Amino acid sequence: MEMKKRINLELRNRAPEKVTELVLDNCRSSNGEIEGLNDSFKELQFLSMANVELTSLAKLPTLSKLRKLELSDNVISGGLEVLAERCPNLTYLNLSGNKIKDLGTVEALQNLKNLKSLDLFNCEITNLEDYRDSIFELLQQITYLDGFDQEDNEAPDSEDDDDDEGDEDDDDEENEAGPPGEYEEEDDEDDGASDLGEGEEEEEVGLSYLMKEEIQDEEDDDDYVEGGDEEEEGK
Asked: What is the pLDDT of residue 29?
């Protein structure tokens, strides 16, 4: 599918100014240029154009909110100064598998002041002696090159970061709900109150029972006395 048709398909149910992510991987660029993208994609934050036969970035529109740009497996060999001019807030750039050969080509990325991660894997430039040290010296704003920092520590996975944030949110919710000790104390108080109520009922039942016994005893005594008088009268 051609790149322009793919973009039109993506925009079938939404306006370009509402799009924040756009994936155009494996689409065909008819002349090696970017097609179908324009400045109306002003909210775009993630753009992927991997393996679309790009040779030039000259027609890249102004995307001031773009943070991540995937351009792997194309035929780009230069013209990277366009990125700083039109996507000044890039933090991640993947140029792996392109035709980038020398440090002079990469030097144009110095103006991407927010760039933190750069991928040049499978580019000819990686065959240069002291390649990593040279790139880190040239682009002092970046933290990760080809997925690793200067001490060979691997870049964190963004999905793992999201999971950690989710766990923190869960902990916050638990803390807001209050410590479990408070609920235990309330339960103890309720148990005490219920025990007291049962005790009171038992006392009331005991008193009524005793009163009935006393009444019965009095009646029995009266019957006994009355019987005695009748015997005396008979005598």
From this structure: 86
